[in-house]
From TrEMBL, chain A:
GO terms for cellular component: plasma membrane. Belongs to the binding-protein-dependent transport system permease family. InterPro entries: BP-dep_ABC_trans_perm, MetI-like, MetI-like_sf. It holds the Pfam family BPD_transp_1. This is Carbohydrate ABC transporter permease. Keywords: Cell membrane, Membrane, Transmembrane, Transmembrane helix, Transport. SUPFAM superfamilies: MetI-like. Residues 67-260 form the ABC transmembrane type-1 domain. It comes from the Bacteria. The chain crosses the membrane at residues 7-27, 71-91, 103-123, 135-158, 183-204, 239-260. The lineage of its organism: Bacteria, Bacillati, Actinomycetota, Actinomycetes, Propionibacteriales. GO terms for biological process: transmembrane transport. It comes from Nocardioides marmorisolisilvae.
TrEMBL record, chain B:
SUPFAM superfamilies: MOP-like (SSF50331), P-loop containing nucleoside triphosphate hydrolases (SSF52540). GO terms for biological process: carbohydrate transport. Residues 4-235 form the ABC transporter domain. InterPro entries: AAA+_ATPase, ABC_transporter-like_ATP-bd, ABC_transporter-like_CS, ABC_transpr_MalK-like, ABC_transpr_MalK/UgpC-like, Mo/tungstate-bd_C_term_dom, NA-bd_OB-fold, OB_MalK-like. It comes from Nocardioides marmorisolisilvae. This is sn-glycerol-3-phosphate ABC transporter ATP-binding protein UgpC. The keyword Cell division does not apply. Coiled coil: none annotated. PROSITE patterns: ABC_TRANSPORTER_1, ABC_TRANSPORTER_2.
Amino acid sequence: MRKNWLGTWVGFVLIMAWCLLPVVWIVSLSFKSAAETTAGSPQFFPKAWTTQNYKDIIDNPDFTRALLNSAGIALSATFLSVVLATLAAYAIARLDFRGKRAVLSLALAIAMFPVVSLVGPLFDMWRTFHLFNTWPGLVIPYMSFTLPLSIWTLSAFFREIPWEMEQAAQVDGATAWQAFRKVIVPLAAPGVFTAAILTFFFAWNEFVLAISLTSTTASRTVPAQMAYFVGADQFNPPYSQLATASVVVTVPVVILVLLFQRKIVAGLTSGAVKG
Amino acid sequence: MAAIEMRNIVKKYGDGFPAVNDVSIDVEDGEFMILVGPSGCGKSTLLRMIVGLEDITSGDMVIGGKRVNALAPRDRNLAMVFQNYALYPHLSVFENIAFPLRLAGRPESEVESKVRDASKTLELDEHLQRKPGNLSGGQRQRVAMGRAIVRDADAFLFDEPLSNLDAKLRGQMRTEIARLQKRLGITTVYVTHDQTEAMTLGDRVAVLRRGVLQQLATPRELYTQPVNLFVAGFIGSPPMNFLPAQVNGDQLELPFGSVTLPKDKAAKAEGRGVIIAGIRPEHFNDAAVLDAQTKAKGATFTAHVDVVEWLGHEAYAYVPFEASPDVADQLAELERDLDGESIRTQLVIGLDANSTIAKGEDAEIWVDSSEVHLFDPATGENLTLST
């Protein structure tokens, strides 16, 4: 027993170190002064802790604007994607219609399509439609690319919900819409949150489209904006500034996961029917 | 409250298979009607057509004098208890029961008082704030019933409500449902595959087989006057014994010997060749424990008893026999219809608890010949019905 216990802990520490070391490294970088990061061989922890990097980055109007763009675009894309995916997944799980398999396969095909190959066509199209360098210009592709995964996740969740729930609601006097809204959606909440988190991550971290379809801070998101963080010259990249921006941009994601983790409670449907 | 009339109801699925075939049943206002049959007989489909969850292929469904074929479930004002309860897991017991009232947009005070009434009736008061996931099977069952009774629905529909409970609880809930139905006096249609529930709960019982209504009668009539082999074999536990037999004059020739039949019964089956005789276990007895007068009403024969089961208030003796091939097929098919597994080539004999017959003995067995049913082996029809 004791041996097992020891093995578990050794494994645990190894895996944690493997996963967290880069994160700790970035955090530690963000507290170092610029002088320290440009020194030949920087040590792991800062010699002198400083919050100057954070002050600088908050004072940088380009960065705060990018943060706002990121938040706006990611939230809009998530909201639209989840709403559409919920409706589509419900139809796929519940209704029998021609072309159901086609819809699902097509959705999967879209998910497998390499994003890079669409950059050129989208660039031209968005310029024609005056969507270049606008929020919708990024929201639309983000939504399209995350819909398939959301639809697949959610239709799996809907299939798990016993159909009797809905029939019971209908017998109790609910319209199809009421049954959906008051019974099915609350039961699928873990699925909805899962889909929402995945979509948000994608939109929040996406780089290729963000850098190709924007030209100014009017719609440039944080990952793209960070590419414009250049130091005094090309031989002195602002490592500490980049690390700070990374920390700032990661914090909301961590908070989101911690918040929603509580919502994603396995077995929410337990007790609905005899297990 | 309302009467439910089913007129020539047919349900065909996509492949043209009729799950319910030309069924007509009148459920009177306030009546407790049971739909019973083995799995796949169409009883649940029929119930779901009443409530509107299943389309009706042809025929008329009339509730309270109004044809409802085209109405959505929510417009039929019926309350249903599902086999697996179908409680809303995200809502408390209170909100589960209140759900139909909230949908109907009733004022808060009315919701409150009705839910309190229902929870009092069903003894759910201390559980109102809990979630269904934390309740026991019996409590969930009561919540499902609570959701049905708050509605002032025209009728209650139950779809095998007790099949998920253990045997003891099932017995308790059965009497609970019977009591509730009598008190509320509401029209009830109850689906079950359990013949004990059918016999104890129903005012009348409809027996279905492969989507066809076999017999619609009171439990007593089903038991004493089954119209065919299927009903005879389905109703009663242990089930009726079926034996190959032949009628010669007033003698019924059974595998164990001859028995004298009452004249009228013999006349109905005379000259038909091999037929099937159906005799319930309790119409046999140990000849040694009977007085001369009772004994004279029937006939006796000697049989080799294989096994004896003594249950205290009664005992069962098992006597194996060989079925002739022409009736064996019919009996095997019946067995399949009844979801059975044993190949019934043994006679089950009910014995008086005082009987001293032991296993492996040759015993003198008495049979009440007036209670023998005779069935046509080809159609399964009961030849000895007293009309």
